[in-house]
Write a structure and sequence with these properties.
By secondary structure, this protein is an alpha/beta fold. Helix content is about 40%, strand content about 15%. It has a seven-stranded parallel sheet with strand order 5-3-1-6-7-8-9. The model has no long low-confidence stretch (mean pLDDT about 95).
């Protein structure tokens, strides 16, 4: 099978789950990646990547941006991009086309001439949350999904409900949970010896990841403990908010108990997970309406048998059952979060968490589901052509 994958930027470190999917597909199929720009080649090597910038002048870009802010539908056709794109498709002749992130993928479809191959579009977060307030965006989605060969993919039932409530046509929609490599994320044998109890979060430091609420809860937690020197909160990851969180920890007077590891490699992330006692991830809805899908970092932590402390946010309750895999609290409920930090101290390692990942959230299950979608769509496509 020849598969053409579109990712606007190949590859942000936060999109490792897409990279893993591409690598798995390439083991038994011919895969070509289409992108507008390529980054981090050393960390994300892949032999067949077509870099095709979507270039427009500054005036047109500003004009289109102003129209979008006013929720006015725009045509994003670009003659140069259209010619290069269709030449690529005519040459590669993909059996399946798969775009990641709906908003960016729509640009490809608008510039793609008639194609009979099945087209899949995966929603991942902001494209199924904050953007849904734009009626022009929803209308464009429905125009796209009205085509018989285009299939939306969502990563949680919660996301499906959000899309449906916004009026998006999901008649051919499909659910496929994220999946992690359970061979890579596997708890090392033997007990890890350490003198600190570690609450860990591995993620980019962005508003919807809720770091500030975890800091506030950790401060309250420490205030209740006489043995506060025993505990550490570790944030592994970075972004524009990293310095803000460092300053916040200093203002709260808890810098001594908080470690900011900055950007970490896959190997370093595994090392942090191996030494942690509890995984924390206080996801919230951003001020702009941005939401998570299901954070892959939580799945990875569960694969390593860690108990989870998170929130009733987006699809997280489909992964973490309160009182079973860890604890969930309402978004921004700092008092309850602090109490749950205390409650979860006695939990220890949770083998059942890994079992849940193996059953529903493993990379193997994810790939089997995805290839099943491809196969069914190809069969339907073939049958339609026979009439």
């Amino acid at each position: 099978m020849r598969i053409l994958i579109f990712v606007e930027t190949f590859m942000f470190p936060t999109l490792t789950f897409i990279y893993n999917e591409i690598k798995e597909l390439s083991k038994s199929h011919e895969v070509k990646v289409l992108t507008t720009q390529r980054q981090n080649i050393e960390n994300f090597p892949f032999p067949d990547v077509e870099v095709m910038p979507f270039q427009i002048n500054r005036f047109k870009r500003r004009f289109r941006w102003e129209l979008e802010l006013r929720d006015i539908s725009i045509n994003r056709k670009n003659k140069s991009y259209e010619e290069k794109l269709n030449h690529l498709v005519d040459t590669f002749k993909p059996d399946v086309i798969h775009g990641h992130f709906a908003y960016e993928s729509l640009i490809v479809l608008e510039n793609l001439r008639t194609v009979s191959a099945p087209v899949f579009i995966s929603f991942h977060g902001y494209d199924a949350s904050q953007l849904l307030s734009r009626k022009s965006y929803v209308a464009k989605l429905n125009e796209t999904f009205g085509k018989l060969n285009v299939y939306p993919i969502y990563v949680s039932w919660y996301m499906q409900n959000d899309l449906s409530r916004a009026g998006v046509n999901l008649s051919r929609g499909k659910l496929n949970y994220y999946g992690v490599d359970t061979n890579r994320f596997k708890r090392p044998e033997g007990k890890v010896q350490q003198d600190k109890f570690i609450f860990l979060q591995v993620s980019s430091i962005r508003e919807k990841k809720g770091h500030i609420f975890t800091l506030r809860a950790f401060k309250k937690f420490l205030e209740q403990r006489e043995d506060k020197e025993k505990f550490r909160l570790v944030f592994a990851g970075g972004s524009g908010l990293l310095e803000d969180m460092k300053n916040a920890a200093a203002e709260m007077g808890i810098s001594h108990y908080v470690e900011f590891a900055g950007e970490v490699s896959h190997a370093q992330a595994y090392d942090y997970l191996s030494k942690a006692n509890v995984f924390v991830h206080h996801s919230i809805v951003g001020k702009n309406g941005d939401k998570e899908g299901i954070p892959n970092a939580i799945i990875e932590a569960m694969a390593m048998e860690l108990p989870i402390l998170s929130t009733y946010h987006s699809g997280i309750p489909e992964l973490v059952e309160d009182g079973v895999n860890g604890y969930l609290v309402k978004e921004q409920d700092v008092d309850t979060y602090a109490q749950r930090m205390n409650d979860i101290l006695s939990w220890g390692i949770r083998p059942a968490n890994r079992e849940k990942v193996l059953k529903t959230f493993s990379l193997q299950v994810h790939m089997e589901t995805l290839l099943g979608f491809y196969g069914k769509a190809l069969k339907e496509n073939k049958e339609a052509k026979s009439f």
